[in-house]
Amino acid sequence: MNSPPIQLQSLIDLQEGPFVLIDADYRIVAANRAYCESYGQGPADIVGRHCHEVSHHSPLPCHLHGEDCPHQRVFATGQPCTVLHTHYDQDNRPEHVRLQGHPIRGANGELYLGEVMTRLASPQELDCDTMRMIGQAPAFLECVDNLTRLAASDAPILLYGESGVGKELAAEFVHKHSDRSHGPFVAVNCAAIAESVFESELFGHERGAFTGCVGRKRGLFELAHGGILFLDEVGDMPLSMQPKLLRVLETGEFRRVGGIETLHADVRILSATNRDLLEMVQAGRFREDLYYRLAGIDVTLPPLRHRRQDIPALAEALLERLAAARGKRYRLSREALAKLETHDYPGNIRELRNVLQKAVALNSNGLIGAEQIQFDNAPEAAFAAPLPATADDAVPPATLAGIEAEHIRELLARHGGHRRTVADILGISERTLYRKLQRYGLR
């Protein structure tokens, strides 16, 4: 193996971010300090090794594992390229990176791959209060890369995606990677606010502004000053509120309900919907000018069926959280995992969580079998599967139907009987929820 010419090493050392030079045999011939620090090793421990051994902890090149390999593309075409990968640090923790491969010629004409590595996110950075953005599927990595780029701007972002894909998690990710990360992140579900109090929720109110109003209240715009306001299910915003929101977005100024003082808030708006807003505009149910204010940049989040390879990792993370709440450990049998991987998940990650919640409720020994993985479209008989007998024979065995009915009853009570909100939480359609309410005699 030849050492790189001094000129090439100087070029590498000038790079602030991780940069590595790789020859035709996948061997690292030079690496700058930032690259070595990324893997907790010195140059002497990295130079001479195969790139896939260092970054992937694998004896085989990444293209043999199904990844898009910058080495192959640069040496085959002589053209630069950009790919998204999952690398592993010195503690074998995955991190998402963007790789830019450049063809570099040595003094004698030999070709090298110059690889610039931009770190997108580690699992710790993707961690949120309720769930993590987890995955290695190409559709997921592309989405993370896109969100990372957009976080650097201050433009409004409209997140499109089916119910349950994790739109609020994506919004939190943008907040954490933006210049507003030290400011507040305030989220509101537009579908869960009654039209009569919508203005008060957004802008606040003064004492005596309406019957029963006993004090001043700060609105969400005030609370989000210097940060991000996330409008989830923005397609459900009442038409009467839309011109008022538009005015605030255009001027940054507003008044509390019942107030005369003009207030100002510096807020970046992120919004999300699972509806076709342009279709709603054409139908007269959403203002066109507001749409273009919100959709400065639009991003579509991939559904779970387009990233099936992420289901095992997502299921494991969800089970960890369920186990922590119950003080127990759970794991999936091979048959249970295979059953999870074949489902299409119209409710996406929220539906996966709901399925695992039911499985945990049915489980007694910590090992979840395929028979405990029940989907909403399963035969009616599946909902009558009894739990294992308890020591107290006087207590009748619980059924999945009973567990589900009680869960729905609690959600309805918690969310004021709002069926749309409860359906979204369960990862099912409102029509399916209605059928369940009839089946279980709930109101």
Automatic annotation (TrEMBL):
It comes from the Bacteria. Residues 133-361 form the Sigma-54 factor interaction domain. Keywords: ATP-binding, DNA-binding, Nucleotide-binding, Transcription, Transcription regulation. The keyword rRNA-binding does not apply. GO terms for biological process: regulation of DNA-templated transcription. One of its GO terms (molecular function) is sequence-specific DNA binding. Pfam families: AAA_lid_14 (PF25601), HTH_8 (PF02954), PAS_4 (PF08448), Sigma54_activat (PF00158). InterPro entries: AAA+_ATPase, AAA_lid_NorR, Homeodomain-like_sf, HTH_Fis, P-loop_NTPase, PAS, PAS-like_dom_sf, PAS_4. This is Fis family sigma54 specific transcriptional regulator. It comes from Sulfuritortus calidifontis.
